[in-house]
């Protein structure tokens, strides 16, 4: 199996060369995604022997990982390992991380910083991790302990299936997307070492990060479960309008009066209309959701065909070179 490591990096010239060197013994190829760095991250990564893919501007870790997955598949990866460039995670844990995939026990494996211990983590990060993990578990009916860990691995099948839209971050979206596609997921314990003096390249402002990540989760949930979201919303609004309207109607039958609740007549009508429209929207969104699944299946086979065609072209090129070299050798012998 060919194992390709993906290292998203933004202004990591101090650690990237050492990180590539430490990761290399555990994988076949290291790919560094230089996400618009303004320092010498790309040069140091190439010096250490990594394949470097560069963004012209800083697009975010989510965009970097998407670029890395695409490059890894082009390189013929059977397993893709994503690890941060800041040396918080130990490359020595890579064999443990990929073991469930190699043993055909999982399609996606994420490292957990909380299995088997509790790391020293900044309080803000711990609170945010707890909240987002709870939210992902609630939405997916799972029991993960760490959904924000950047140390993870996925099989070729999972990489071909995954569809990510968030450029800012990708951690929670990955869980929601792959679980919806029935991919087998597993957690393994990993060790982490935090440098309290180092500023995070992703979480520059905890509040801003939380809002951005939450918006990505909301958009993902709406994409994955549109009928439930709009159907429940529409039903609640319609029921509210129906109940208040019924109460006013009963009062009018018994007393021939609506006052002093005349304003509720308009509100009930608005709620009924809005609720009905949300239910119609839920049906339309459900139809679009089915189309989305068909399109993702088409995208999956298109990716597979493109990779097979690329590999076939590469093999034909190698055979052509070998034939040419063989012919030149024969000509040399005849002379």
Write the layout of secondary structure elements.
Elements: E1 3-9, H1 16-23, E2 29-35, H2 41-47, E3 51-55, H3 61-74, E4 79-82, H4 94-102, E5 108-112, H5 123-140, E6 152-155, H6 156-161, H7 171-180, E7 185-189, H8 206-224, H9 226-255, H10 262-334
Parallel strand pairs: 1-2, 1-4, 2-3, 5-7
Antiparallel strand pairs: 4-6, 5-6
Helix pairs in contact: 5-7, 5-8, 7-8, 9-10
Your description of this structure?
This protein has a seven-stranded mixed sheet with strand order 3-2-1-4-6-5-7, sandwiched between helices. It has ten helices and seven strands. The longest helix is centred in the C-terminal third of the chain and has 73 residues, at 262-334. It folds into two domains: 3-224, Spore Coat Polysaccharide Biosynthesis Protein SpsA, Chain A (Alpha-Beta Complex), CATH 3.90.550.10; 226-323. With 335 residues, it is an alpha/beta fold.
């Amino acid at each position: 199996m060919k194992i390709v490591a993906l290292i998203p990096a933004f202004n990591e010239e101090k650690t990237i060369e050492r990180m590539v060197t430490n990761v290399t013994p555990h994988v076949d190829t290291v790919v560094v995604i230089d996400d618009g760095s303004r320092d010498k991250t790309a040069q140091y990564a190439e010096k250490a022997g990594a394949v470097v893919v560069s963004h012209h501007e800083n697009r975010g870790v989510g965009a970097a990982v998407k670029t890395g997955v695409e490059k890894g598949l082009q390189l013929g990866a059977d397993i893709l390992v994503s690890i941060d460039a800041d040396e918080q995670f130990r490359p020595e844990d890579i064999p443990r991380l990929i073991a469930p995939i190699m043993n055909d026990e999982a399609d996606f494996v994420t490292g957990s910083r909380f299995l088997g211990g509790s790391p020293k983590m900044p309080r803000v990060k711990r609170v945010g991790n707890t909240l987002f993990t709870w939210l992902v578990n609630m939405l997916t009916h799972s029991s993960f302990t760490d959904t924000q860990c950047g140390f993870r691995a996925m099989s070729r099948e999972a990489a071909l299936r995954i569809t990510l839209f968030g450029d800012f971050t990708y951690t929670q979206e990955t869980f929601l997307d792959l679980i919806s596609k029935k991919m087998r997921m597993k957690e393994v314990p990993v060790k982490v070492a935090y440098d309290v003096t180092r500023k995070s390249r992703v979480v520059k402002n905890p509040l801003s990060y939380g809002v951005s990540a939450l918006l990505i989760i909301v958009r993902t949930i709406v994409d994955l479960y549109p009928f439930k979201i709009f159907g429940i919303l529409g039903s609640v609004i319609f029921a509210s309008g129906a109940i208040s309207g019924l109460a006013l109607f009963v009062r009018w039958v018994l007393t021939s009066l609506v006052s002093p609740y005349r304003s509720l007549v308009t509100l009930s009508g608005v709620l009924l209309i809005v609720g009905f429209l949300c239910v119609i929207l839920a049906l339309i969104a459900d139809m679009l959701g089915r189309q989305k699944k068909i399109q993702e299946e088409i995208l999956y086979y298109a990716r597979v065909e493109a990779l097979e065609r690329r590999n076939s072209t590469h093999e034909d090129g190698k055979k052509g070179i070998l034939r040419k070299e063989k012919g030149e050798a024969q000509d040399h012998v005849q002379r």
